[in-house]
Design goal:
Layout lengths: L1 H33 L3 H11 L16 H18 L10 H22 L2 H30 L2 H20 L3
Helix pairs in contact: 1-4, 1-5, 1-6, 2-3, 2-6, 4-5, 5-6
């Protein structure tokens, strides 16, 4: 009887752990859909500070200081460039693909740290599709409500940054 109870608790914990991974990877993918480089920057900082354990894996380099700063610089450049009216839509193929790749990569890193690379990769990519399409619709509606795009873009930036921080702080 004790063995059956122990096995049940173990299965319950495994199910809870998998659900946690799915939610975190999906959410970081949504962030990648909003801002492609914000998600990997957040994951890199999480690895650097030991929140996400990637030591001894193929993605351990994400936690190095140089990687963290390079990805952060790219994320900052993206935040500035996104406010440029000449920046193409996130829904055109190159931008859409980049967001899905970054979402999948960020989800995979989280998955690797939490025990299942493939679930993390799939959920991160799916989240990026949701974030790309949903973010475009949300920003369009906000821009219409504000009468211009800049406040909508800045609000979306804030949501992406705060959201990324909250997500990686709950790994």
């Amino acid at each position: 009887m004790l063995t059956l109870t122990t096995e049940f608790k173990c299965l319950s914990q495994q199910k809870e752990s998998t659900m946690h991974l799915i939610v975190i990877a999906l959410l970081i993918g949504i962030i990648a859909g909003l801002r492609a480089f914000t998600a990997p920057a957040a994951v890199s900082w999480a690895a650097k500070f030991g929140v996400l354990s990637l030591g001894g894996t193929h993605l351990a380099w994400l936690g190095s200081a140089i990687t963290t700063w390079i990805i952060t610089a790219l994320a900052l450049f993206e935040l500035v460039n996104d406010q440029n009216p000449k920046t193409p839509s996130r829904k055109v193929p190159p931008q859409f693909i980049a967001r899905v790749v970054m979402g999948g990569f960020s989800g995979a890193a989280i998955g690797l740290g939490l025990g299942d690379l493939w679930i993390g990769l799939a959920c991160g990519a799916i989240g990026a599709v949701i974030g790309t399409l949903g973010g475009a619709a949300f920003r369009g509606a906000l821009a219409k409500a504000f009468g211009r795009d800049l406040p909508a873009g800045l609000l979306e930036d804030a949501i992406a940054i705060v959201g990324a921080y909250l997500i990686v702080s709950h790994i």
